[in-house]
Write the C-alpha cells for this entry.
Amino acid sequence: MTQLQIFGATVLSVVSLLGALPAFSQTPEEKGFDVAARSDRSDRGFGDSEAEMTMVLRNAAGQESSRSMYFSTLEIPDESVGDKSLVLFSTPKDIEGTALLSHAKILDPDDQWLYLPALKRVKRISSKNKSGPFVGSEFAFEDFTASELNKFSYKYLREEPCGDLQCDVVERYPRYENSGYTKQISWVDTTEYQIRKIEFYDRRDSLLKELVFEDYRKYDDKFWRAHRLSMKNLQTNKSTDLVYGEYKFGVGLTDNDFVKGRLSRLR
Amino acid sequence: MDRYFEAIDRFSTQMTRAIIQYRWLVLIAVVVMTMGIGTGMSRLEFASNYRTFFSDENPELAAFENLQATYTKNDNILFVLEPAEETAFTNNTLAAVEALTAEAWKIPYAIRVDSISNFQYTKAIEDDLIVEDLIIDAKDLTREELQSRREISLAEPLLANQLVTPTGTVTAINVVLQYPEKSLSEVPDAVNAARLLRDRISSEFPGIDISLTGVSMLNNSFSEVGMIDAGTLTPLMFLVILVMTWLILRSLAGTISVLLVILFSSIVGMGIAGFFAIKLTPISMSATTVILTLAVADSIHILISLRSLLREGLSKVDAIAEAVRLNFMPVTITSVTTVVGFLALNFSDSPPFWHLGNITATGIAAAWLFSLTLLPALMSLLPVRVKKIHGREWSHIAMTRLADLVIANYRKLLVGICLVVVAFIACIPMMTFNDQWVEYFDERVEFRTDSDKALKHFGMYPIEYSVPALNPGGVSEPEYLENLEKFVDYLRTRPEVIHVYSISDIMKRLNKNMHGDDQAFYHIPKNRELSAQYLLLYELSLPYGLDLNDRINVDKSATRVTAMLRKVTTAETKTFLTDTKQWMAESWPEYMQAQPTSAQVMFTYITDRNIHNMISGTLVAIVAIALIMILALRSVRLGLLSMIPNGLPLLMTFGAWAVLIGEVGFSVATVASISLGIIVDDTVHFLSKFVRARNENGFSVEDSIRYAFRNVGMAILVNTIILIVGFLVLTTSAFKMNVDMGLMTILSILFALVLDFLFLPALLLVMEKKRVITEDVQPVAEPS
C-alpha cells in the first residue's frame, strides 16, 4: 500500500464513522421528538372511542363540585390534522344536553361549536383561546388535545425512575402562538411508552400545574388509557380530578357524527 | 416601714460595692450576655403583609381569608397610566398598555392581568360568538378603530371607572398576584419586577406618567418605611441623646456610660425579638427609639445624684454606692410601672403592638439591670472630675420658689386645674377615628405619592361580598341574577362607590350577544338553564388567567360582588356598610344575605376592636400600677391618690388632641397604656420623696412638699425634657401611626408634668391636712 492509499483508507473509515455517529448521538431535539412520536404511535389505529367522564373540582378552601360528560373521539390518521372530539354534558342538570364539538387544528385555533339546548341553537365559538379553564376546572381545553404530536417541538432531558417504571423525561414547547404555556415537561415510561406525568409552565416559565396519569388499563391488547387524571394548580392550590369509566373502542363513529348538524340530535 | 427601706438600702449598697470590686468581671459578663442575645438580631426580618396588623383571631380577617380561598387572592399591583395627551386612546398609549399587559404576566407570582387591551370583548356575527382581546396591535389601529375602542371601553360596565376613567383620559392595568407565602422576599421581588417594568415602559413610551399602587405596593411599603425609619430615627436618636446627656452631665465618662447602657438595652430588646421570630413592622421598629428614650432616664437619675455626692466631697466608690442606694427604689419602681404599661399592649388586637410592647418591656428591664450593674462598673473605671461648687445651685432655688408658689396658691390651683381638666375631657367626644392605610405613609414613601395620584382617578378601597345562591348552580337562577342586578344598581347610586364588578353585567352582555347583539336583550336571561349554558360557553372561550374562577365559586352556588369605593374615611365606610346591610335585609331573600369583607372592612373595624381591647388593657395597667404604688409607698391612701395625677393626663391628652387635630387612627388606643407607664414615673419620684420626708424626717406636709421639689423637681424636669425630645424624634417617622403615637405621648408627658408640679402638691395639702385635722383635735402649727 502506498502512503496515499493508506491516507485514503483512513479518510474513508473516518468519514464512514462520522456518518454512523449521528445514529448514536442524536440531538436532544431529535431524541425528544422520537420519544413523543413512539408514544403517539403506540396509540395509532384506535379508530374511535367513547367514554364517560366525571370531573371533580376542588378549590383552595376544600369545597368540591363535580360535572359528568360523555367524551367521543374520532382518530384522524393524518398527523398534520388533529382528531375530532365531542363532549356531551350530562350533569349538572343546568347544562344537560349541552354539546361541544371540536375539530382540533395543529397550529391554528381549533374549530369549535357548542349546542345550547336552552337556546336550541348551535353557536360557533370564534376564539384563539384554548388556554382558559375548561368548565371552571384546572384543565384547559388545550390540555385535552395535547397528545397531538406536531403541536409541540421537543427536547430530550434525561431518563429517570418514575414509580415502578423508568421514564424518559422530555421537555416540549407549544408551537401554537396563543398557548397559555411556555413549556411542559413530560414523563413517558420506557416500557409501554405512556405519559405518566406532565408539568405545565406558565408565561413566566414558573411551574403552574402538575398532571398525574394513573390507573392505566389496556384495551384490545394494544391501547392504553389512563382512567384517573389528577391536575393540581400549584399556584392557586385548586385541583381537578378526571375519572373515566370504561372506554369503548370501534363503536362505528364516522366523520358524519362529528358535524355541527348532529349536535342538536344527540339526546 | 423603716426596716423595709433599710433592707433595700443595705442590699443595694452591698451590691454596688461588690460590682465595683469585681467591675471587670461585671463588664465582661454584661458584654458577653448582650452580644449573645444580640445575635438574635440577625434573625429579624421585615413583615411584608398588612395582614400582620391583624391577629389570627380577628373575625374580619378570617372572613376575608375565607373569601380569598373560595375565589382568588386579592393581592394586586395597579399600574396607572396618565398620558400627557387629553386621551388615552392614542396609538402610543394603547401600545404601551398592550406591551405592559403582556409583560406584566412575567411579574413573579402574577396570576392574572386585566387591562383595556386584554379585555375579552364579545360580539355576535350571526351564530358565531366572537371572543377576542379588545385591543390588538395598537400601533396599527386607524383613527376610527381607536374611536370605536374608546366607545366600547367607556360603555362597558366592567371597564369604565375601573380600568379607564369615564372621560377616557387615564387607564389602569391590574395585576393580581398569588404568593406562595414561603419567603419574605416574595413581595419585594414582585414589586421590584413591577418597578423595572414601569421604568422600561416609561422609557419606551415617553410622555406617559406611570404610577404604581395596590395591595402589594402597600405591603412592600411597610418594610420600606421601616428602612427609612431605621436609617433616620435611630441615628438621630443617638445624636440627640449624646447632646442631651452631655449638656446635663457635662461629663465625658457619664456620657459614654449612658450611651453604652442604652445601646446594650436596645440590643437586648431587639435581640430577644429576633429569638422570638418577631416580624418587624414600622410599629415594632419604633421600639428602638422608645427604648433609647426611656433607658436613658434610669442612668441620668443615678448620674445626677453621683455628681452632687461627689461635689459634697464623697470618695468615688462611696459616691457611686450612695447614688445607687438613693435611686435603687425609684428606678426599680419606675421601670416596673413602665414595663407594666408596655406589657398591657398585649391586650391590643393588633400583633405589631404586642411586639412593640414586649420588645420595649424587655429593653426597659435590660436598661434597669444595666443602670444598676454596668453603669456603676463603668463609672468606677472611667476618670470622673467634678468642679466643687459652693453654695446652693440655682435649680434648688428655683424649685424651692416653685414649691412656695404652689403652697401659697394651692386652692386656686386646685380649682383652676380642675376646670381645665374638665374642659379638656369635655372635648374628647369631638375626636373622630380614621384609618386610611394610604395615609399611614408620608410623602417620603413612593407608595403614598403614587397612590394619591391613582386615587384621583380610580377607587382603591374595595368592599367584597360573596353572595350565596340557593343551591349549587343556583347562581344561574333568574331570581338570583335579578337581585344581584338590583344590588349593583343600588350600589351605583351611592356617591362613595366608583365601580361595581358583578357577573350580572356579564350575563346581560352574553344574552345580548346570543341574540345577535340586539340591545333589547340586554337583560338577565329568563331561565336558569340558559344562564348556565351561557356561562359554559363564555368560560370555554376565555384565555388563560382571565377565567371566572375569581367571580364564581366552584359549585356555582355563590358569586362575588366588588364595590370599589373612592377615597373614604372610616366613618364614611361605616355608613356605607350599615346602609348596604339594611338594603340587603329589605330587598333580598334570606339566603342571599352577604357579609362585607376586605382590607378596608378590616381597617374599619380594627379601631373599635382595638379601643375595646385596650380599654381593658389600660384598666388592668392602671390597677396594677396602683398596686405597685401602694406597695412602694407603703400607703393605700397615697397609692390611690396617685391614680389622679396618673390618669388625668391621659384624658387631657385625648381632649387636647380632639381640639388640635381631631382625627386619629387605631393606634390611639395603645397610647394610653404606653403613656401611663411613662408618666407614672414623675409621680413615683415625687411621692417617694414626699413619703421619705414625712416618715423619716417627720416634716410637715408643706415642708415635705418643699423637700420633694428640691430633691426631685429638677430630675423630673430633666427627665420630662429627655422624654419629650425622644418622642419628638419618633414624630419624624415616615409612618403616621408612629408620628401620632409620639405626639400623643409628648402631650401626656407635658400634662403629667403640669399636674405633678401644680396639682399633686395641692391635692396632698388638702388630703393630708384633712387627715391631720381628723386625727388630732389640735391642728399642727404650720411651719413658716
